[in-house]
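Propose amino acids for all 324 sites.
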């Protein structure tokens, strides 16, 4: 196996993490049109997520992660049969829906969480990639610019498939002074920027991509009420951190594998009868009571895995899977 082909494309990775993304790319990654993307990003709230640049410019325009995620989530709603007007209105009324997936989809540990790994530091792209056309605000976690890993496999495994490969971080190889006992090298270290011990962004990963504990969902009930689904024990980022610390730092796991999450559902917004207007009402006792009653006695319940929608867009953006 030519493991060099498993190296990530740094230009694509840095574009994702900095938000240097054009409307054309957002459209391609989500199976929508540029006109659809312009419509979504023209809302009163979402247009605040666009900084600098001209129309569709990649050079100076930057997109926040929230606005970027919203494009994927709207695409998922539309695939479920919703109009772009209503889907966009939901994200305008409850934009936090587009924020929740980020901490796991773009997981990155802090310096205190990853010691002795160097991942918690930041890389200033203007300094580290002076010819890349980067702006002063284009700073990414150190691992996104500098993480390299050596592909290794267990000794005795003559025929190796993608699923047999483990990735030995360069910093760890330096500390232990080589390759762990019982393993062999499959080639030179390659650029592997993502902290991804369960292989969500691996080439050739054909495993189910739903993660009950790691994913954020929201629901539309009876075509009228929007609910958020939240996990507080364990919190999704804490669970992702636990997996990383066990896999790469060798720390004992705090959460048992397959632990049942504690989930709670909260009403967030009301869809008006015109099928276009959405009103956020969190904190309104009367509206919340009406929404909860319909949650119990629902006729239809649409479940949107927002994290999966964003994760699939990211896999397309990285070139790991073809566009929809």
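Proposal:
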């Amino acid at each position: 196996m030519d493991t060099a082909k498993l190296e990530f494309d740094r230009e694509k990775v840095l574009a994702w993490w900095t938000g240097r993304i054009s409307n054309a790319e957002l459209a391609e990654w989500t199976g929508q049109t540029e006109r659809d993307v312009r419509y979504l990003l023209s809302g009163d709230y979402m247009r605040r997520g666009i900084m600098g640049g001209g129309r569709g410019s990649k050079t100076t325009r930057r997109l926040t992660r929230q606005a970027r995620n919203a494009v994927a989530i709207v695409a998922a709603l539309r695939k479920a049969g919703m109009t772009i007007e209503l889907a966009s209105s939901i994200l305008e009324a409850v934009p936090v829906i587009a924020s929740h997936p980020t901490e796991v989809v773009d997981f990155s540990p802090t310096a205190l969480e990853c010691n002795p790994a160097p991942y918690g530091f930041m890389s200033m792209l203007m300094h580290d990639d002076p010819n890349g056309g980067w702006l002063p605000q284009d700073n990414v976690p150190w691992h996104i610019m500098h993480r390299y890993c050596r592909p290794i496999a267990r000794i005795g495994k003559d025929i190796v498939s993608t699923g047999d490969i483990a990735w030995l971080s360069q910093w760890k190889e330096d500390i232990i002074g080589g390759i762990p006992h019982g393993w062999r090298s499959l080639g030179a270290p390659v650029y592997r920027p993502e902290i991804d011990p369960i292989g969500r962004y691996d080439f050739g990963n054909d495993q189910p991509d739903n993660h009950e504990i790691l994913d954020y969902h929201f629901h539309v009930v009876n075509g009228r009420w929007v609910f958020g689904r939240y996990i507080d024990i364990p919190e999704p980022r804490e669970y992702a951190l636990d997996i990383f610390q066990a896999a790469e730092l060798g720390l004992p796991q705090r959460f048992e594998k397959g632990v049942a999450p504690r989930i709670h559902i909260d009403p967030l917004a009301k869809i008006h009868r015109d099928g276009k207007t959405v009103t956020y009402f969190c904190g309104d006792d009367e509206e919340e009571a009406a929404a909860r009653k319909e949650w119990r006695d629902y006729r239809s319940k649409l479940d949107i895995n927002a994290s999966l929608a964003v994760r699939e867009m990211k896999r397309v953006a990285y070139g790991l899977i073809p566009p929809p």
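The chain has a mean pLDDT of 93. The longest strand covers residues 262-271.
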